[in-house]
Amino acid sequence: MTELTALTIAEAREQLKAKAFTAVELTEAYLAAIDQANPVINAYVAVTHDRARQMATASDARLAKNEGGALEGIPLGIKDLYATEGVHTQACSHILDGFRPRYESTVTANLWADGAVMLGKLNMDEFAMGSSNETSFYGPVKNPWRATGSNADLVPGGSSGGSAAAVAAWLCAGATASDTGGSIRQPAAFTGTVGIKPTYGRCSRWGMVAFASSLDQAGPIARDVRDAAILLKSMASVDAKDTTSVDLPVPDYEAALGRSVRGMKIGIPKEYRVEGMPEEIEKLWQQGIDWLREAGAEIVEITLPHTKYALPAYYIVAPAEASSNLARYDGVRYGLREQGKDIVDMYERTRAAGFGDEVKRRIMVGTYVLSAGYYDAYYLKAQKVRTLIKKDFEDVFAAGVDAILTPATPSAAFGIADQELASDPVKMYLNDVFTVTVNMAGLPGIAVPAGLDAKGLPLGLQLIGKPFDEETLFATAHVIEQAAGRFSPAKWW
Amino acid sequence: MTLIDTRTPEPKRLIPGATGDWEVIIGMEVHAQVVSQSKLFSGASTAFGGAPNDHVSLVDAAMPGMLPVINAECVRQAVRTGLGLKAQINLKSVFDRKNYFYPDLPQGYQISQFKQPIVGEGIVTVAVGPDKQGNFESIEVGVERLHLEQDAGKSMHDQHPTMSYVDLNRSGVALMEIVSKPDMRSSDEAKAYLTKLRSILRYLGTCDGNMDEGSMRADVNVSVRRPGEPFGTRCEIKNVNSIRFVGQAIEYEARRQIAILEDGGSIDQETRLFDPGKGETRSMRSKEEAHDYRYFPDPDLLPLEFTQAFVDELAADLPELPDEKKARFMAMGLSEYDASILVSERAIADYFEKVADGRDGKAAANWVINDLLGALNKAGKGIDETPVSPAQLGAVIDLIKDGTISGKIAKDLFEIVWNEGGDPKAIVEDRGMKQVTDTGAIETAVDEVIAANPDKVEQVKAKPTMAGWFVGQVMKATGGKANPQAVQALVKAKLGIEE
Amino acid sequence: MSVDLDTVKRVARLARIAVTEEDVSALTGKLNSILGFVEHLDEVDVSGVEPMTSVIPMEMKKRIDEVTDGGKAADIVANAPATEDNFFLVPKVVE
């Protein structure tokens, strides 16, 4: 028998049903793998051994009665920004020290209702602000991938770095993640995993620690396209508790796999050929185009003229919303409190001690752009630019394009504590250049591994779809996956 | 907002200073708690009181990841209020975040409406008075806007030497902020506006208007100027919680500002607090930092949109409001004074209408205003605590009308019903309070009085108005029960006085 | 637009984050780098463009007016650094 942790969700699901092994056995296999690997990889910030075993035992009871749900007995890792009742929930920030919510997020509640098992909480950039998982209060996550012949530690990407690393290193069968500017797709691309950010409004945000409300969206990171489809089906729902959750039934995404792309129009946006793009990325993109053409899709060059404004607009909208969303961390009702000589002093000391540098920078930028006199010039303008970005996509879709193919990231995974990136925040922000337009327009985007670079590091392609047309993305990504194969790191930890 | 002066200075409203007359300019921001079961964006109760943090949901406490979902009833109530203020209803409005830090503001922002409120400009017609002649002056106070927003929690500072206690029960309760234009020119006008506004809200059932429970509070903007000059610098007196205090605060504040200006000083634009104990206002916040609320549309919410049909439906179901009711009462023959008093509270108007149903309106108004409201006032009771029901008061009036009792006896009867309750008709019967209409008995009494007072009989021949004295004597002799008209007729006949 | 040291101090105060002189000078450089980057938007003409409010046109969901929550003061204060009798305690606020 192969290692239990090597199984995809789809495979484990069938074998659990067939009683080839029990949910408890599967869970124990993962817990053992985590206990062995986590001191090195640092993907988990909390491992819930007892809860995992209890949930697995309950799953076995349901499986025995053939009453199992869609994810019965499947062990998952949960990004630390999902509220999990009674369990560490800090968005990897010091300011939420000791916070144990008395509630469960809608997304995780959906997963548990389908029988999934919680292994623990996954590392992430603090409040999901980062592209390398280095802003976490709990320290960086190590990418399970290393360049051929190198022992240098690489970042797994961010902000869902723990999720991506845990999936790539087989420390969970699948993981929840979240994406505000690329936080699912970029780490997925850096770790050879599949990550989908669904349409804004597809998954409930209730119980997710907010970063930028108009951009945040939950989604899964998984080992392959099928697993991503299975997970998203469970995570997504219509939620009366989230005003921005959209009232549309959740389709069976898995059923879209195997759907032919013959006759589909795939758009190739010329604006994504950015200056200084590594040749390898260019090559990978062309490879993706060829695969889809061979599968019968029609390839069309398209233009998305406002693309280059997406990232600047993002760095107004996201910090502005964050500055307000993070105002609740004030040392009064939960988390860290630093003593002060009066209330204002208490606030200032608590927030100075509780937030890391990147979070502080973004709060400062957000506060500044919203402050008196600047609202129209910055926030309002950026929200109008979003309308233009969205319209670019609408025009393309109206012209008959079914999905858009782009690179997922401008590079492969980079080194931990990269000096050049640390010195200028904007350089780090450029990691999201291909992913952020999708958040700005609220569209669905999937990152799928498509190959390895010369150093043996995974690279991903991104597919962008019409609002609520995740099915086309799964079908198309599946075609790429079939052509490219799957990628797993060699175990060194 | 551009301030437009809608009024012409009138000498009678001016405040004399040492160096000449001054005009006071008043605008008001009234915070009215919306009548609803649950809060504006959560399912927690709005009930007054409650154990600490008991009426609090995870949303109200701003737990991480919590999201607001708007209460449909609060939207309805705001639209109904806008209709009652004859205001523009905006089919699209936007909720914004007003960002500031305070321990009773858990989110670190208040969800409010800044640029696009649910209700735009409207008008409140205010009857100021009555003056000594019983006359009212009608003025119009413009409404700038009405918007929905969240109330804050409550901090208590006197429980502990170094700590404040925070209770979030009120956090997230729906408020309507109703902003007037600077259209008031005296404390009487301001009090009359607030009274009228409260009455409209109570008629609509959109706010209970209980100022002592904090469900209605006023921020009063006061400035002074020489008549005809531009508006002066204003001070905002925050959270005044009674109509009387509004009057006192304005009187104090206007004189304070006049004194400063006459001394050659200038007014600092600032927030002040009214101290009811001392009857004065004092500066509330140090000017260490200007507020910068960083308003922006709340990304957790969508624009609030509804159709004109929705508005029309609410308009069709609106109850009759005080102005219309007053006009109808005056058409029934009531004086403006009486009508104004009767419509001041919906419950009084309802009471009156029950009494007046099928009876003479003026008689009903007199009894309700003079007797019922007089007695309630004396007993310190509200109309809802009246011991005399409309049916009982109506029965008293009927007994006068059909001649069973005299007006004087009726007053006694009212007092008995007030104190002991019971059916007025049965009381009259049981206690022998019926008017004597038997002419034989009255005639005997008249004869006796004439026989006993020959001197007066002589006098009356020269001075016919003396007949009243005989009537009085007969009434006295019959214990007030004789029908006064019958007595009068008989006295005149017996004394030979011509009609 | 760029910010100077005083602006950074003022913004830090608005955001209720204590900063040292050292923080302020480090922040000033980084904020200016970010603000310089976002200034690319100056090139875009947004006249007549409405700000984005939702991905697809939709009406805002509303709740029915009923009491469905509350009565859990212990849960509300469970994570608080200082409480008494289910009140939150904070350093005294002086007005």
Automatic annotation (TrEMBL), chain A:
<keyword id="KW-0648">Protein biosynthesis</keyword>
<dbReference type="GO" id="GO:0006412">
    <property type="term" value="P:translation"/>
</dbReference>
<dbReference type="Pfam" id="PF01425">
    <property type="entry name" value="Amidase"/>
</dbReference>
<comment type="subunit">
    <text>Heterotrimer of A, B and C subunits.</text>
</comment>
<feature type="active site" description="Charge relay system">
    <location>
        <position position="159"/>
    </location>
</feature>
<keyword id="KW-0547">Nucleotide-binding</keyword>
<feature type="domain" description="Amidase">
    <location>
        <begin position="25"/>
        <end position="473"/>
    </location>
</feature>
<dbReference type="InterPro" id="IPR004412">
    <property type="entry name" value="GatA"/>
</dbReference>
<dbReference type="InterPro" id="IPR000120">
    <property type="entry name" value="Amidase"/>
</dbReference>
<dbReference type="InterPro" id="IPR023631">
    <property type="entry name" value="Amidase_dom"/>
</dbReference>
<comment type="similarity">
    <text>Belongs to the amidase family. GatA subfamily.</text>
</comment>
<keyword id="KW-0067">ATP-binding</keyword>
<comment type="function">
    <text>Allows the formation of correctly charged Gln-tRNA(Gln) through the transamidation of misacylated Glu-tRNA(Gln) in organisms which lack glutaminyl-tRNA synthetase. The reaction takes place in the presence of glutamine and ATP through an activated gamma-phospho-Glu-tRNA(Gln).</text>
</comment>
<dbReference type="InterPro" id="IPR020556">
    <property type="entry name" value="Amidase_CS"/>
</dbReference>
<dbReference type="GO" id="GO:0030956">
    <property type="term" value="C:glutamyl-tRNA(Gln) amidotransferase complex"/>
</dbReference>
UniProtKB/TrEMBL annotation, chain B:
<protein>
    <recommendedName>
        <fullName>Aspartyl/glutamyl-tRNA(Asn/Gln) amidotransferase subunit B</fullName>
        <ecNumber>6.3.5.-</ecNumber>
    </recommendedName>
</protein>
<dbReference type="GO" id="GO:0006412">
    <property type="term" value="P:translation"/>
</dbReference>
<dbReference type="GO" id="GO:0016740">
    <property type="term" value="F:transferase activity"/>
</dbReference>
<keyword id="KW-0436">Ligase</keyword>
<keyword id="KW-0547">Nucleotide-binding</keyword>
<dbReference type="Pfam" id="PF02637">
    <property type="entry name" value="GatB_Yqey"/>
</dbReference>
<keyword id="KW-0648">Protein biosynthesis</keyword>
<feature type="domain" description="Asn/Gln amidotransferase">
    <location>
        <begin position="350"/>
        <end position="495"/>
    </location>
</feature>
<dbReference type="InterPro" id="IPR017958">
    <property type="entry name" value="Gln-tRNA_amidoTrfase_suB_CS"/>
</dbReference>
<dbReference type="InterPro" id="IPR004413">
    <property type="entry name" value="GatB"/>
</dbReference>
<keyword id="KW-0067">ATP-binding</keyword>
<dbReference type="GO" id="GO:0005524">
    <property type="term" value="F:ATP binding"/>
</dbReference>
<dbReference type="GO" id="GO:0050567">
    <property type="term" value="F:glutaminyl-tRNA synthase (glutamine-hydrolyzing) activity"/>
</dbReference>
<dbReference type="InterPro" id="IPR018027">
    <property type="entry name" value="Asn/Gln_amidotransferase"/>
</dbReference>
<dbReference type="InterPro" id="IPR042114">
    <property type="entry name" value="GatB_C_1"/>
</dbReference>
Automatic annotation (TrEMBL), chain C:
<dbReference type="InterPro" id="IPR003837">
    <property type="entry name" value="GatC"/>
</dbReference>
<dbReference type="GO" id="GO:0006412">
    <property type="term" value="P:translation"/>
</dbReference>
<dbReference type="GO" id="GO:0070681">
    <property type="term" value="P:glutaminyl-tRNAGln biosynthesis via transamidation"/>
</dbReference>
<keyword id="KW-0808">Transferase</keyword>
<comment type="similarity">
    <text>Belongs to the GatC family.</text>
</comment>
<dbReference type="GO" id="GO:0005524">
    <property type="term" value="F:ATP binding"/>
</dbReference>
<dbReference type="Pfam" id="PF02686">
    <property type="entry name" value="GatC"/>
</dbReference>
<keyword id="KW-0547">Nucleotide-binding</keyword>
<keyword id="KW-0067">ATP-binding</keyword>
<dbReference type="InterPro" id="IPR036113">
    <property type="entry name" value="Asp/Glu-ADT_sf_sub_c"/>
</dbReference>
<dbReference type="GO" id="GO:0050566">
    <property type="term" value="F:asparaginyl-tRNA synthase (glutamine-hydrolyzing) activity"/>
</dbReference>
<keyword id="KW-0436">Ligase</keyword>
<dbReference type="GO" id="GO:0006450">
    <property type="term" value="P:regulation of translational fidelity"/>
</dbReference>
<comment type="subunit">
    <text>Heterotrimer of A, B and C subunits.</text>
</comment>
<protein>
    <recommendedName>
        <fullName>Aspartyl/glutamyl-tRNA(Asn/Gln) amidotransferase subunit C</fullName>
        <ecNumber>6.3.5.-</ecNumber>
    </recommendedName>
</protein>
